[in-house]
């Protein structure tokens, strides 16, 4: 049986809403964010995917997201594990600051280029250089923990006979993972809150199936609307 990773981005949070860099800092899901994840959970239930287990990062926004998904899927007892390797980037002393200051100010000044033109490696090195607190990770540390985290999860599922696993992680972490397993990946598809990126693991190799898929959320929203009228 193939091993498939369904990687959801957590629901929209307070910092997401006001445009603050939310790395290792954490804020709760907003009412809109919780609603979007209820839609996702309902859509996944309708799709009848038989998840073997679930994983989140160790940050509260992913844990709450999974709780809501499992409630909507009516699978509260699905085994789930927290793995800090799939947590978000650390923005160091800029964590919690405004996105515009980091991505449109600090990084462009370091490289004299728009942040959209920068690779993940360049962005990580820029953040590491600009961090005055000494908290940010080097690219080697960051990329190493992310690829190790997702690979370890995939290997565990494969060793148990394969199947589907649900993972809740973070926008830049998911994008970094995609860039590490697919050299042709470009940061063109926005990984929205509540979207699902699907990856297949077979014979030690990852294949990207879909990126930032919102169809589960859209179907769930449609079903919830029908059920409440």
Automatic annotation (TrEMBL):
Coiled coil: none annotated. It comes from the Bacteria. Gene3D superfamilies: Phosphoglycerate mutase-like (3.40.50.1240). Signal peptide: none annotated. This is Histidine phosphatase family protein. It comes from Streptococcus caledonicus. The lineage of its organism: Bacteria, Bacillati, Bacillota, Bacilli, Lactobacillales.
């Amino acid at each position: 049986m193939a091993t498939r990773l369904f990687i959801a981005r957590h629901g929209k949070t307070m910092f997401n809403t006001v445009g603050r860099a939310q790395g290792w800092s954490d804020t709760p899901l907003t009412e809109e964010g919780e609603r979007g994840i209820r839609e996702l959970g309902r859509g996944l239930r309708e799709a009848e995917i038989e998840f073997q287990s679930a994983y989140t990062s160790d940050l509260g926004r992913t844990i709450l997201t999974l709780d809501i998904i499992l409630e909507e899927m009516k699978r509260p007892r699905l085994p789930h594990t927290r793995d800090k390797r799939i947590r978000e980037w650390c923005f160091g002393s800029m964590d919690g600051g405004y996105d515009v200051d980091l991505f449109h100010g600090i990084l462009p000044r370091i490289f004299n280029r728009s942040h959209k033109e920068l690779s993940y490696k360049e962005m990580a090195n820029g953040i590491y250089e600009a961090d005055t607190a000494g908290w940010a990770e080097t690219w080697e540390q960051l990329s190493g923990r992310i690829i190790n985290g997702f690979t370890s999860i995939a290997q565990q599922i494969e060793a148990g006979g394969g199947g589907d696993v649900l993972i809740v992680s973070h926008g830049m972490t998911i994008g970094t993972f995609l860039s590490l397993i697919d050299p042709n990946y470009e940061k063109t598809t926005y990984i929205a809150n509540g979207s699902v990126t699907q990856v297949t693991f077979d014979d030690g190799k990852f294949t990207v199936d879909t990126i930032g898929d919102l169809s589960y959320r859209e179907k769930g929203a449609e079903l919830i609307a029908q059920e409440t009228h």
